[in-house]
């Protein structure tokens, strides 16, 4: 029977090991312990016997069907160490046991002990990342998940359908997270607690997680066999495990509900949509390519396996890049259109990759180099050696481009103002006038199109032309000579009723959350204080001024050159209702919060006091894209700024922030901080972009959360320009 070391001896053992992944350390460990000794890390045989034998009895019928009648199932014990587990299983009648460990010292000792008395039991010196050791030993937090994932992949490989993988673990958060995600698709999972009545060696609870290999791609809920009335369930360790299982089952339910869940590349590699090495005609699935640390960018993509097998395929796999300007077109946005692209590309499998605002004007060589290693994992079959995956691309959608000005700011860096005409995606409208757009591009962030405005014919120029028609012939001749040989020159202006960014529309729609408070302000003649941090080309504040004339708008912009470009090229102007403050937006909010000490009392048009509602909008990009946070700058989601924002709004107001992050970890960090600072938090995620607009408020005093239909109607009645509020509000979710 295994011996239980004293506390001092246990400490000495751990000091001997140091690095649990080192072969040399384990050889030294077993040499110091001597021959003929046994050691159990987590549980004694008396505690494991009942659950293990129950598990293995279910394998008897399968083993007989495979021709193993009378011998029981094949059992592999990776990282066997000097445990008595294998000999107990052998003596219980399970003879086909193979033990694997990468310590030669240990295997030599075990062979001497068991070769005669248990001749059918096998012992192998083997690396369990090609068969290495127990999962917990490979998953020291500072070492990362690479060895652990390699071990699990090898374990999955050697099991046949119906095979079972039983893992004894303390279920630490980083270990359990890897287990649950690695066996999410195509495996049945259960977890139970192992009794520790015969051993007092550890204050921690041991768990047995069992995975049964099933049909690829099928998602099963995890079966919890934990007795939540047991004493150990009151511990933090058990509570963390129970919480992790609940969270994982929620994720699994979303995958199995039939919704069009966007998967990650790793989900696909784990079998979420079946075997990637096989072409499954008609298979189509959206997913995300790339993640922080593994690629420069992250990309929305669609995997498409040709609907019909044909001998005319030119490529076994290809990549088709769709620029942001064309992503909305039927050919790329609709499922039917995408199948047309597959047929035209003559590929057995097509990976359609959609670029967004972060990739605008980026060097396509960089994009292709970034994508190449990612899509390599999606190749079907066994392609020929050195076969390259071809890259195809739709045009960038810009039919005509005119650079108006290129400048470099010490604050923002290089900027470009340009007029563009997009290619006409609707062939049946070729007789319609071409629309021209003016764009402000920040080159520091991979050519980010910071603002886009619609150019329209200036009605004042039309009146001038009408006046010209009434002039005497000589006067008309002189006037035409001034205009040049081309005749009447069209004068264009910015259409401030047009919102070029869909997330701007979402910001407007989100005001439904405080529609009653806004309506009350309008009724009492109170101007609603609205602060916008980040001017850009001025599109959003100009739209707000005209569309919601009861707003008193203050814009805070750090770069004077940005304001100059907005005024010169985008028709931005200030007045009593719309003012610009040049300076640091964070300091501006902090100073106002301190000066007002959170006071929001204002006078209405009748001189009466009102509990005013405030709106704060943060719409700035980050110059440090390496952080995984493209918008806003990290300082705008720092705890100190969020606290100042809460004081700034006091009890009446709405904090709106445009969030763009390609890292789920960063996004969760931002959301977590907002939840701590604010009582209520809502999210509106844009399907076609990576933008997510977050709405936070310190209290529910101004919220219209009980009757959003009525709130939408109130907001629409206040808007001077049409905005599709209903569609946006349907996507609005409360973050718990």
UniProtKB/TrEMBL annotation:
<keyword id="KW-0808">Transferase</keyword>
<protein>
    <recommendedName>
        <fullName>Methyltransferase domain-containing protein</fullName>
    </recommendedName>
</protein>
<feature type="region of interest" description="Disordered">
    <location>
        <begin position="458"/>
        <end position="488"/>
    </location>
</feature>
<dbReference type="InterPro" id="IPR029063">
    <property type="entry name" value="SAM-dependent_MTases_sf"/>
</dbReference>
<comment type="similarity">
    <text>Belongs to the methyltransferase superfamily.</text>
</comment>
<feature type="domain" description="Methyltransferase">
    <location>
        <begin position="75"/>
        <end position="163"/>
    </location>
</feature>
<keyword id="KW-0511">Multifunctional enzyme</keyword>
<feature type="compositionally biased region" description="Basic and acidic residues">
    <location>
        <begin position="459"/>
        <end position="469"/>
    </location>
</feature>
<dbReference type="Pfam" id="PF13649">
    <property type="entry name" value="Methyltransf_25"/>
</dbReference>
<keyword id="KW-0489">Methyltransferase</keyword>
<dbReference type="InterPro" id="IPR051419">
    <property type="entry name" value="Lys/N-term_MeTrsfase_sf"/>
</dbReference>
<dbReference type="GO" id="GO:0008168">
    <property type="term" value="F:methyltransferase activity"/>
</dbReference>
<dbReference type="InterPro" id="IPR041698">
    <property type="entry name" value="Methyltransf_25"/>
</dbReference>
<dbReference type="GO" id="GO:0032259">
    <property type="term" value="P:methylation"/>
</dbReference>
